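This part of the workshop introduces the protein records we will be handling. Getting from the letters to the tokens is the skill we practise here. An example says more than a description, so a record of this kind follows:
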Amino acid sequence: MTGERRAPADVGPGAARATLPGPAEAPATPGGAPAAEGLRAPRPPRPPRDRYLDLLRAVALFRVVTYHTFGLSWLSLAFPALGVMFMMAGSLMARSLDRPALSVVRGRVRRLLPPFWFFALCVLPAMVLHGWGPPSSGAASWWGQLLFWVVPVGDLPRNAWGEQLVEPLWYIRAYLWFVLLSPLLLRVFRRYPLPTLALSLAPVVVLTVWQPDGPVAAVAVELATFLTCWLLGFAHRDGVLDAVRGLPMLAVAAALLALGAWWAFTHPDPAAGYDLNEIPLGQALWSAGFVLVLLRFRPTVGWLARVRPLDRAVTVLNSRAVTVYLWHEVALVVGVLVLDVLWNVPAVADHVPLGNQGVLFAVAWVLIVAAIALFGWVEDLAARRRPRLWP
């Protein structure tokens, strides 16, 4: 199955592509010689960041942490965070692929893997300390599966103790696969944009009917579930959606939302009920419709700059999105341990409702902020920027 994995209750408009100017003619000196050989025209200024997309990413990350804290299934309907995150990643990938594909893919992988490796260096020893190791039989397979902790293209091996910490990392795996497939996907999309979008739901329909099993099937279901959202990111970048009139777009979005809700409520998961994160076809349809509405009917967000604390929070969450996603489950687990200790402090236990999940939520965000300060610099190194304690 795909989607966010719920934690136990206690416990990442299109614009036309610019063409860089060619070499400028060097101005001649009075003697007829060039003033400066090899002079180039200045590069055009980089377009300003799309703060609407930044705001969406920040809301999506906040929603992911909220879901994993409270386990509220209706949040998957209220704001399908993973679909929104895949859409934004697809948009940024399409923008980057205006450059040579190999360098773009290499750069994206370079930005992703060092923070992931740093996380692995912390989590793997902790699992070993909690009894994880090669089995008495099949040890060669166990060691081979450890390679997925180097390049996360498959199901990450873990023990029961590390299940909660590792399970949400399916998103990292799916994102990496989408990055690797994007040069081909974008080429097909730009040649046949609307047919590609229309057919992008076919894989999840086929896999829902077929219901294959196994780790390879799990990856295929994840990619099929969010393929349409990724392609909608391409459409956003290339301005395809802007060419469609508002009423037809609204009709398509409404149909997708209605179909997604109908499928989810008629095919609930035996354990999770109506949680879209465990209903791939419902998730795919609902997320696609939701993302269409977000992209086609874009509100202005100029007000964000006037709300300085919120504007700053959006900036930090976007600058450290990988860190927040990797470490938020660790923050929840450590938060539970902190609250367990505080139960033994009468001055705190008598005045703070330590058993309330809202308290855990607040403690988790304090720990996430600490993780940003302690580990966020790895994202800077991965992006070849000067490491900063705080973005």
